[in-house]
Amino acid sequence: MASMFISLLIFSFFFFLGTPLSSNYYQNTCPNVESIIKKVVSDATRNDKTAPAGLLRMHFHDCFIRGCDGSVLLNSKGKNTAEKDGPPNVSLHAFYVIDKAKKAVESVCPSVVSCADILALAARDAVVLAGGPSWDVPKGRKDGRISKASDTSQLPAPTFNISQLQQSFSQRGLSLEDLAALSGWLYTIYARAFH
């Protein structure tokens, strides 16, 4: 059951948004995108054992707010404090992995692959590198241009009890099993990083 969680989580958000995605979205425009990202994530994981958990958590936080649009990657500008700087997200890390992946992808396929897709692929690769399941990532997400720290209040708080967590997840079309699986994978990945 837990091994199916990651793909169910991702597909739940896609259907929630009604976004038409395709497994072969970059087949003609950037056919090597997945191998490029996988190499960057693999290299980062060799040097930072917490990178896989960081990438999975970052992707979850991104999807939970505006639906897997990469808005968690945007920086604060002027008077707008971005999601990245919202209280639940200040402890997110591994942004450098996405930056490196974006740079590597841009060197081969300039202005083709969205940051949202790079984050989704990197999160998948991180889970696989940590010993978790693999899945086909549908691609074609558009990058969000809105990112507000105030929106991070939608994320489940670490102080939530099981009823509050279940309600928070169910509002996004996710089940108690999804909650248990995500928690289990994050714990497993972090535990492997420190042993």
Automatic annotation (TrEMBL):
<feature type="site" description="Transition state stabilizer">
    <location>
        <position position="57"/>
    </location>
</feature>
<feature type="binding site">
    <location>
        <position position="69"/>
    </location>
    <ligand>
        <name>Ca(2+)</name>
    </ligand>
</feature>
<dbReference type="GO" id="GO:0042744">
    <property type="term" value="P:hydrogen peroxide catabolic process"/>
</dbReference>
<keyword id="KW-0732">Signal</keyword>
<keyword id="KW-0560">Oxidoreductase</keyword>
<keyword id="KW-0479">Metal-binding</keyword>
<keyword id="KW-1015">Disulfide bond</keyword>
<feature type="binding site">
    <location>
        <position position="62"/>
    </location>
    <ligand>
        <name>Ca(2+)</name>
    </ligand>
</feature>
<dbReference type="Pfam" id="PF00141">
    <property type="entry name" value="peroxidase"/>
</dbReference>
<dbReference type="GO" id="GO:0140825">
    <property type="term" value="F:lactoperoxidase activity"/>
</dbReference>
<keyword id="KW-0408">Iron</keyword>
<protein>
    <recommendedName>
        <fullName>peroxidase</fullName>
        <ecNumber>1.11.1.7</ecNumber>
    </recommendedName>
</protein>
<dbReference type="GO" id="GO:0020037">
    <property type="term" value="F:heme binding"/>
</dbReference>
<keyword id="KW-0349">Heme</keyword>
<feature type="disulfide bond">
    <location>
        <begin position="30"/>
        <end position="109"/>
    </location>
</feature>
<comment type="similarity">
    <text>Belongs to the peroxidase family.</text>
</comment>
<dbReference type="InterPro" id="IPR002016">
    <property type="entry name" value="Haem_peroxidase"/>
</dbReference>
<keyword id="KW-0575">Peroxidase</keyword>
<feature type="binding site">
    <location>
        <position position="83"/>
    </location>
    <ligand>
        <name>Ca(2+)</name>
    </ligand>
</feature>
<feature type="active site" description="Proton acceptor">
    <location>
        <position position="61"/>
    </location>
</feature>
<dbReference type="GO" id="GO:0046872">
    <property type="term" value="F:metal ion binding"/>
</dbReference>
<feature type="binding site">
    <location>
        <position position="71"/>
    </location>
    <ligand>
        <name>Ca(2+)</name>
    </ligand>
</feature>
<dbReference type="InterPro" id="IPR000823">
    <property type="entry name" value="Peroxidase_pln"/>
</dbReference>
<dbReference type="InterPro" id="IPR033905">
    <property type="entry name" value="Secretory_peroxidase"/>
</dbReference>
<keyword id="KW-0106">Calcium</keyword>
<feature type="binding site">
    <location>
        <position position="156"/>
    </location>
    <ligand>
        <name>substrate</name>
    </ligand>
</feature>
<feature type="domain" description="Plant heme peroxidase family profile">
    <location>
        <begin position="20"/>
        <end position="195"/>
    </location>
</feature>
<feature type="binding site">
    <location>
        <position position="67"/>
    </location>
    <ligand>
        <name>Ca(2+)</name>
    </ligand>
</feature>
<dbReference type="InterPro" id="IPR010255">
    <property type="entry name" value="Haem_peroxidase_sf"/>
</dbReference>
<dbReference type="GO" id="GO:0006979">
    <property type="term" value="P:response to oxidative stress"/>
</dbReference>
<feature type="disulfide bond">
    <location>
        <begin position="63"/>
        <end position="68"/>
    </location>
</feature>
<feature type="signal peptide">
    <location>
        <begin position="1"/>
        <end position="20"/>
    </location>
</feature>
